[in-house]
What we know:
The chain is 73% helix and 0% strand.
Amino acid sequence: MMTTPSKIQIGSRSPAKSPWSYAGSGLGSPLMSPIPGMLAGGELPGMESLDLNSEIVGNQLNTILSSFKTDSSLKFFLSEDFDAVKHVGNAIGNGTVSRSLQETENAANLVSAQVREEVIRRQDALLGEVEAVSALEQQIESLSNGLNKLAATTDQLVDSLNDPFEKIQKSIHKMKNAALAADLLQKVVRFQTCSNKVQAFCSSNDSTDADGLKSTAEAVRELEELIKTPPLDRVDIVARELPAIRKANSEYKSRVTDTLRNAMASGDPLLIAAALQSIDLLGNIEERLDVEVKNLVAQAQKAIIEGFDTKQVVQKTAQSTHADIALPEMWKRLDGAIEQLHDVIVQIIKLQLVLQWKQDPTLPSSLNDATELHVCRAFLQLFKKNFLEHIQSLYRAKSFTPGGVLFHALCDDYPRLSQIFGSLSDRLMNAATLSQLDGFVSGSVITRDELDSYFSDALLPIEKQYLALSLSRVTDPIISLFRPDAPSPGTIAANGLARLFAAELSSTMNDPKLFVNSSKNVAAALYMYAGKAQEALGDAKDKSISDLYDGLYALGAAARTMFGLQITNGKEMTEAAEVLTTLSETFLEKLFLDIRTTVDSSLLKMKDDIMSEEGKASAEPTAHVKERYILVLSEKLRKFKTESLDRVVRSRALLMSVHALARQTLSKFVLHASLLWSLDLKRRTVLAADMSELEAVVVKVCAQKDLGESYSAFRAFRKLVQMEIDELASIDDNLLEMLSELKPSCVVMHILGRARAPLLQPHRRMQWSTKYMVEWIDSHSEEEAMESANECLVAYEKFMKSDESQNAEDMVPEYKLLKVLGPKLLQRYKRRAGLSTAKPAVVP
């Protein structure tokens, strides 16, 4: 704004007064004429004479003053310590007032006379000076007149400059007043317009007009700003309407809140967006959203409290010492509470969806900022906290009180409760994920994992209690089964446990997290069963071992196939099942250990029984004499079959163990029989009979088709035992084919056993026991065994050569046979071994 300059004062309009004035001399009149040459910087005329005389006059005055100081009547008054008051006081005190007055008068007269004399004496000089001063005053007056005229002219110029500015200033002031009036009038008009809009909206019953809702919010905000303008509230028309406007504004804000709640309840996203924009225009969106979240939390909490109302589902009769629960009514009320909770959460989800929508640029920036407010998560966090507090209050209630009874009922059927909340999550996810709608693009406002996490945390006390009860349900029967006075648990007990485990897991299949935790409980039970069974193994007998094996195997097999262990969540249970399977194989090994020991010990007695005198007592060469070792061995195998194998669950591991036992029994019999010596016809007949007895028992333990090469070798050896040396000497292809079923070393050892001394078998030559020889053959290769037998032939040759009484024709027939048969059998064995990767038929 342009400011009006103040008047410029260049000079004074009043004439300047002369600084010199003398009474009666006319020197005090102003000088009216300018001094010539003054404005040009010259000096006033006569001024130089004044400067020259001033020093002379000063000297003369000093001379007069000195004469005064020496005068007797004046020096007293001119002294430096003269005090007039003191002088008067002394005169009065001394009574010399008259004399003092006289002295004073004399001094005054002396000064006056002296001055007069000096004036008279200097009259001409003084008159000259006065004239010079008078001329100076005239020149000064002329200069002053000139200056006054100049000042007058300047004043006129200033006035001519100031007059337009004063007019402009007045015009500006008028314009300001007009602008203020126009602005006030405009505000009054806007006030009336906004007032009419707000009152019209409030008077209508339609709150679903999105555009009207937003435009009215703008009007309300403008009204609130106008009301704060100081001049406006003093306008009569505005002042009269202010109470009504404030009431209308308050009513509109309430209508906007109701519209937002109704829009969330109906799920209308456009109306929700309009209501939010209206609230944002009013400047309190965060506060309003916080209020709405708390309001919805209160609604959800009310629904849960009604759903878990112990007064409605738990009753305590006079005849009962504890409360009884009506389960159908409990689940019915809980379903209703979940339905209400669904409606409330859908509202908050719709609200969150609107906040996350990306609209056109006209969307207020503050509403865009509000998208950072995740009201959905805020709601769920508050709901979880309140719900958890309610559940914990039930948990803390005593067992037989209504609250405690309700809590335990929920724990007993927690999978159903979890499934209800899982279904709620499914429905909420449908509401939380929308596609493009009327220009609004949205995505999921919350993930399924987040929803499940909130609900799972809220139900955590119930889940913990359920899992604790579940663990007791699956472990208590195991503790009971393994009581010291209880029989060893077998297949029946294991199947019962498997059904119990299946029931626990099947109830949690729809909840992956709960299924994992239940699987851990079942796995813990399986580990417990394995531990208990292993503790019982040390003192168990054969029958108990078979029962324990049955239980372990059956339970492990059931665990492996329970609900399909392809499910990744069943990892813990799968590992526990493998532990059971491994342990069952340990039990199986324990079960077969005794029978293997019996076979070995029985075969070690073969030599004594065959070589005893009783073995030679038969009158008939072909009589079947059953020796004690074969009786013991056969009886053990029969008993093992009936009391163990026939009782245990058939499994692959069991069949493999049975096959191995049968094959090893036949192979070890052949090996032990090949180490016998002095085998005459009678002993060979007894041995063949024993082999027939053993074969009859073994084929009952294991099917003949599963005996493999061991059975072929066993039958070939029996034929070998029954043949004479002369028959073997033919060495035709049929014979070689038959003998090829056996290891060459077994054939050679058996033929050496038929020979008489000094042709001996390796163990007899080395004086080894049969047991040691068996172990040596098992730990060495076939080539090494054949080399050991060949050394026996070489030793025999040396012996025969050393005895001069012996010649080549005296060599025993067994030596001659082995010199030809041995290399051929070894060659066929090597060729056969090179063509096949199968293990040899005799002892593995």
